[in-house]
């Protein structure tokens, strides 16, 4: 979770802007890019383990649900 290994990109989804985090990781002389949902899960896990929020801004997309739901609408 070192900041020098982290990059972020601004994206847009349904008119809402959010940040996607990307982490460079190297193991056994192989380089990996950790991003998206995987990066989000690792950020959250590190926050729990270290009992503090990340040192960088998190900006997640806002998921929108229908404003009007009638009795015939099902969520699956």
TrEMBL record:
Its cofactor is Mn(2+); Mg(2+). Signal peptide: none annotated. Keywords: Hydrolase, Magnesium, Manganese, Metal-binding. One of its GO terms (molecular function) is coenzyme A diphosphatase activity. This is Nudix hydrolase 15, mitochondrial. It comes from Solanum tuberosum (Potato). InterPro entries: CoAse. The gene is LOC102590715. It comes from the Eukaryota.
């Amino acid at each position: 979770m070192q900041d020098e290994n982290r990059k972020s990109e601004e994206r847009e989804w349904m008119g809402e802007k959010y940040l996607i985090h990307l982490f460079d990781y190297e193991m056994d002389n192989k380089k990996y890019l950790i991003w998206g949902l995987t990066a989000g899960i690792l950020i959250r896990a590190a926050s729990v383990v270290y009992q503090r929020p990340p040192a960088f801004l998190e900006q997640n997309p806002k998921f929108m649900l229908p404003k009007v739901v009638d009795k015939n609408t099902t969520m699956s």
